[in-house]
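Box 4.2: Ligand-aware structure prediction
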Amino acid sequence: MSQCRRAKITALGTYVPPRVLTNQDFEKTVETSDEWILTRTGIRERHIVEKGVATSDLALEAAKCALAERGIGAGEIEAIVVATVTPDMLFPSTACLVQHKLGVKGIWGFDLSAACSAFLYALQVGAQFILSDTHKKVLVIGSDVMSSILDYTDRATCILFGDGAGAVVLEPSEDDNGIIDFQHEVDGSGACSLYMPGGGSLHPSSQETVEKKMHFVHQDGQAVFKYAVRKMGEVCETLLSRNGISAQDIDCFIPHQANQRIIRATADRLGLKPEKVIINIDRYGNTTAATIPLAMQTAREEGRLKKGDLVLLASVGAGFTVGATLLRWTI
Ligand SMILES: CC(C)(COP(=O)(O)OP(=O)(O)OC[C@H]1O[C@@H](n2cnc3c(N)ncnc32)[C@H](O)[C@@H]1OP(=O)(O)O)[C@@H](O)C(=O)NCCC(=O)NCCS
């Protein structure tokens, strides 16, 4: 038997919690306006969990949807990679909790931390297991409960994020369709531009870290914005040029949803027509590891993503982490 050359996505499932927090809701709690949020970010509303609902709960729902779409039981999955920056706990890993909640035994898994690029990184890690022929079915999940690490009195950060999850099943491709290539980069010089300082080994949780609000997201918005605008386009250009592909060949561009202005600037730089660019930040905000699978779902629902389409995925996140993936859509 010939070894498979590519891994492919064979199912997609997504989940967002039912509770919605609108821009108008924020007008009542912090000094902001629907108009400011909409024009600066493109966000109208985001979904937020109820107290007691964790990242593994959202991940589980998305995983169940993906398994149902593929028509298989959880028992057929061999490994689970959970991309998240808001694990239920520092340990055990959220992947263990998802495995247990799925009710399967004898499989393995782990979490992958790369903030807003984590789904793309996890997708590639899962793909490598398929390519090495050690696994036939890998579940890759992006799930984040950003509301658990936001300071809802800080208007500059709390309006940006939402909660959600997305999952895909990865399997070997019998042909040239599937994940074609990727370009990833990290740049730790940007660590102080977007981070959560408290609760780790550097600043273990204490009364002092809580009083200083170190358990919340801290961000230099403009620094992140400038880096994201530059790097998202750059990484896509590198990937496209290495594969001899022009932006005109791309059928669907699915970027991380951090800010509509970042997405539009990237699309303009690449010369992508607006109809090829998927934007759903208005409905979900920035759900960190979940934005790309949620945007894949939106693209399908809107009839803008079809089997055989050439798809470009791109992300920039805390770290900094940067990623781009080229694939031929297979479902
Ligand atoms: C956060 C972000 C929307 C802020 O937009 P901006 O145009 O850069 O705004 P600035 O930070 O320059 O702030 C401009 C003013 O708006 C104010 N402001 C911030 N948040 C506000 C809000 N929700 N409502 C009203 N005013 C707000 C600021 O206090 C500032 O006021 P000042 O001029 O009196 O100091 C933007 O920087 C951004 O999207 N950055 C990237 C963030 C990101 O993507 N993070 C995740 C990466 S994966």
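In the box above, the bound molecule is coenzyme A. The mean pLDDT is 97.
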